[in-house]
Each structure stands twice: as structure tokens, then as C-alpha cells.
Design brief:
CATH architecture of the largest domain: Sandwich
Shape: globular
Strand content: 25-35%
Bound molecules: nickel (II) ion
Order of helices and strands: EHEHEHHEEEEEEEEEEEHH
Number of helices: 6
Distance between the termini: 22 Å
CATH superfamily of the largest domain: q2cbj1_9rhob like domain
Radius of gyration: 18 Å
Largest sheet: 8 strands, antiparallel
Structural class: alpha+beta
Oligomer: single chain
């Protein structure tokens, strides 16, 4: 399942990130790749742990922790420190899968990648190409979102970024280890949560059936979550 999370960053914060990225030194994107994806990848990245990447990473993690939609959809246990990439001049990233385990360079921090995230930092009309294309059981999905919006998709999926033929595509990308490892279980919880929220908006939180449904949600979460 792909889930779009609009407005993770507001326009002013995107602008701050654009300024930091304009002043930063970029390196060949293959600095962070596994052997298989290095074959397909052509882009540039901010070095992991560079001052700009750290500052923007903190901004993004703060924004995510304040996003009820992100928390409901991802049920995050651990979030990898956000990385940043830039595609221009025909660069793209051919079909690949993301590594199952990500280790933060120079630390003990490691996560299992259950979900992949792309947070767009440039509006779609500023570049041509650069669509994120994800293949899952339901077919092929293509996304290219406004600056500040994010998409979550299963890290297990095959995906690629089409070549950027005009302008530059700037984005943050990272992975999430969810408390609920299984994509189907996580989706079921998200649908139940979303339905409870919309019923509660109609009937009020005190409705006895909403209280019972909320109990079902938490009992399923208790059954499926690892913390
Ligand atoms: Ni990828």
C-alpha cells in the first residue's frame, strides 16, 4: 500500500531546506548503495552525517513525530536518519529493492526497513521526469508530489525513479521499522483507525460502539506489535 502524507513540511521549512541544500557539498549517490542498486543508481547525495543533512534530518523527524497520519500509517518503532538526494541532467535510479537492514554509518543504530519514505522538496513543475514508480501486487503506481509532501511504500517493493530531463529533483529518503512488521496487518490497523476516527467525528468519542471498536484496535495492535 502506498500512503501519501501531505504537508509534512510547510513552505517556509521547505525553503530553509532548499537553502541548506544549495549551499551543501554533494557526493556521488553510490556512496550509500548496496552492490545491486549501485548498478542502477545515478544521482547525488548529501554525505550521511554532514551538517546540512543532520539539521534537515532533525527538522523532518520532528515534523513526523507531530503527524498523526504518519504515526497511524507507519506505526513507527525506529526511523532511519533522513538522507537527501538530487537527480538532474538525465540521472535516474533503475528498478531495485531497498536493503532489508540499514545500518547508520559510524554508529550501532540499525533498523529493519519495513517502509520506505520519499519526502519531496521541489514542486513537480520545477523538473521533468523524476517520477517515483513502485510495483506491488496491485500494479504499478507513479508518484510525484508537491514540495513538503511525503509518500510511504513497502520497502519490499520493486521501485525506480525515472530520469530527470529538466531541472533538478531534490528529495529526502529514509526507512522506517514499524512496530507491525507485516504490511497487511499494518494496513488493517490503519483502515480500522481511520474508520474509528471518522465515526468519532460524527458521533463523538464517547459513543459506546466507538469505545468497543477502539478496544478492538488496541487488542489487534497488542497482538501484532513488537516494541
Ligand atoms: Ni530504493
Amino acid at each position: 500500500m502506498m500512503i501519501q502524507i501531505p504537508g509534512v513540511l510547510d513552505a517556509q521549512t521547505v525553503q530553509r531546506c532548499r537553502q541548506l541544500m544549495a549551499e551543501a557539498d554533494w557526493v556521488d549517490g553510490n556512496a550509500t548503495s548496496g552492490a545491486q542498486s549501485a548498478l542502477a543508481k545515478r544521482n547525488h547525495q548529501l554525505p550521511e552525517g554532514s551538517p546540512a543533512a543532520r539539521e534537515m534530518g532533525r527538522i523532518i523527524l520532528d515534523a513526523l513525530s507531530a503527524s498523526p497520519l504518519f504515526i497511524a500509517a507507519a506505526l513507527p518503532l525506529k526511523v532511519f536518519p533522513p538522507l537527501f538526494n538530487r537527480y538532474e541532467g538525465g540521472e535516474g535510479f533503475g528498478t531495485h529493492v531497498d536493503n532489508a537492514i540499514r545500518i547508520q554509518r559510524g554508529s550501532d543504530f540499525r533498523i529493519r526497513s519495513d517502509l520506505s519514505a520519499t519526502l519531496f522538496l521541489v514542486d513537480p513543475d520545477e523538473y521533468d521526469g523524476g517520477e517515483l514508480t513502485v510495483e506491488d501486487q496491485l500494479g504499478t503506481h507513479t508518484v510525484k508530489l508537491p514540495a513538503g509532501d511525503m509518500v510511504l511504500y513497502p520497502a519490499s517493493s520493486l521501485h525506480h525513479v525515472t530520469p530527470v530531463t529538466r531541472g533538478a529533483r531534490l528529495a529526502s529518503f529514509f526507512w522506517i521499522q514499524s512496530m507491525v512488521r507485516d504490511d497487511g496487518e499494518r494496513r488493517t490497523l490503519f483502515e480500522l483507525d481511520t474508520t474509528i476516527q471518522s465515526l468519532a467525528a460524527e458521533r463523538g468519542q464517547g459513543d459506546p460502539n466507538i469505545i468497543r471498536l477502539t478496544g478492538v484496535y488496541h487488542n489487534l495492535l497488542r497482538r501484532w506489535a513488537d516494541v
